[in-house]
Write a structure and sequence with these properties.
By secondary structure, the protein is of the alpha/beta class. 52% of the residues lie in helices and 11% in strands. The termini are far apart. InterPro entries: Cro/C1-type_HTH, DUF5753, Lambda_DNA-bd_dom_sf.
Length: 285
């Protein structure tokens, strides 16, 4: 295995394989937990890739599933070892949404809907700092600075010379009307948004207030898709104290259909650029 394997994605793949072995054995997660004298939640977290998995865990599970092919066991053990490597984001210390960053780092495309603010991958430094400061009024300046640095580092996927992230962002008008920082910060942010929207792999659409109710009124979400067919798509919903990751096919399909409705109801790319340009002029007055 290459040393630069994304640990988050490696955990997901390993978890999927362990789930497959359990299902082939016809066992429930509860039955496996009883055999290993661990909690059922641990088995579930190992299978969904949300928990770090050790080579000992893999060995014990393969024993329960009676995996006799040593090549399969060795391969899974190596995957467990790779999954414990650190991604670039670990150098910043404890990041609450590190699982998401790991997924985003390996994603081929990202569809995001944001009703309140400009998405993180399209934020300027000043906008990001003002936004984080306002959203986390009790955070220390060092923590704010760390979050800004991580956000800017994530944006390297957009500017990557090879295989950049395919980004499709649908915004509610509130995201460009909400004055974050001050008027100059907003002018700078909207100009950057216009510039980024010209990139061939970035599409920005806006839903004006005049559209009224639409499928996105329930809140922000993102859909991540991956280059390897073995990696299922993920719907990410950010929370205050915990985040939600949906991977079941029916859940992803439901959110994908909802996103298609959002794209259909939003202004097209050219109309969006014109609208944002006019909002920027309003801030400049």
């Amino acid at each position: 295995m290459a040393s630069n394997v994304n640990p988050t994605v490696r955990r997901r793949r390993l978890g999927q394989e362990l789930r497959r072995l359990r299902e082939l054995k016809g066992m429930t997660a509860e039955e496996v937990a009883e055999r290993l004298l661990v909690s059922q939640s641990k088995i579930s977290r190992l299978e969904n890739g949300r928990r770090s998995i050790s080579q000992r865990d893999v060995r014990d599970l393969c024993g329960v599933y009676e995996v006799e092919d040593h090549r399969i066991v060795d391969s899974l053990m190596q995957m467990a070892k790779d999954s414990r490597q650190q991604g670039w984001w670990h150098s910043f210390g404890d990041i609450p949404y590190s699982v998401y960053i790991g997924l985003e780092t390996d994603a081929a495309s990202l569809r995001v809907y944001d009703p309140q603010v400009v998405p993180g991958l399209l934020q300027t430094r000043n906008y990001a700092e003002s936004l984080i400061t306002g959203a986390l009024p009790e955070a220390a300046q060092a923590d704010i600075d760390k979050r800004v640095q991580v956000r800017l580092r994530r944006q390297e996927r957009i500017s990557a010379p090879e295989n950049p992230l395919r980004l499709w962002a649908v915004l509610d008008e509130a995201a460009v009307r909400r004055e974050v920082g001050n008027r100059q910060v907003m002018i700078e942010q909207l100009e950057y948004l216009l510039e980024a929207s010209q990139l061939p792999h970035v599409t920005v659409q806006l839903i004006p207030f005049s559209m009224g109710a639409h499928p996105g009124v329930s809140g922000q979400y993102a859909i991540l898709e991956f280059p390897d067919a073995a990696d299922s798509s993920v719907v990410y919903i950010e929370g205050v104290t915990s985040d939600l990751y949906l991977e079941k096919a029916q859940d992803v399909q439901k959110y994908s259909v909802m996103y298609e409705h959002l794209r259909a109801q939003a202004l097209n790319a050219d109309q969006t650029r014109e609208y944002i340009s006019n909002v920027a002029k309003d801030y400049a007055r």
